[in-house]
Amino acid sequence: MLDLHHIFTMQKKALFFLLALCALGWGFTSIPAVFAGIAVGACFGTYNFWILVRRMDKFDRSISEGKKTVSLGSALRFGSGIAAVAIAITLPQYFHLISTVIGLMIPYGFLFIGVLVASVRNK
């Protein structure tokens, strides 16, 4: 099974490719707000996944040292999602709300696809 750092590295590469596609869509289509919303949502979603990776490291260290476990940062990730949606609601002429929410879920889709690919390769 892949560790979280390897998955996060793969997600960063996929995010840069997605952002390039969003930049092209933003510049050359008639629906730039949709592509801008996807880009903002994907950035905040990747930030949420980075927080999760960092907190899982702290969690693993505290378990191995026998210390009391710490929170996994759910409130911080939830607040980040609210911030992304607040940006889309505040600036609807630049960011599409639904595409921002979809963009927030893209890193988890990348995670699912990465796990599927890794399990197919290991068979």
From TrEMBL:
Transmembrane segments: 35-53, 74-95, 101-120
Annotated protein name in UniProt: ATP synthase subunit I
Species for this entry: Ureibacillus yapensis
Alphabetized InterPro entries for the sequence: ATP_synth_I, ATP_synth_I_Bacilli
GO CC annotation: plasma membrane
Membrane topology per record: Multi-pass membrane protein
Source superkingdom: Bacteria
Keywords tagged on the record: Cell membrane, Membrane, Transmembrane, Transmembrane helix
Subcellular location: Cell membrane
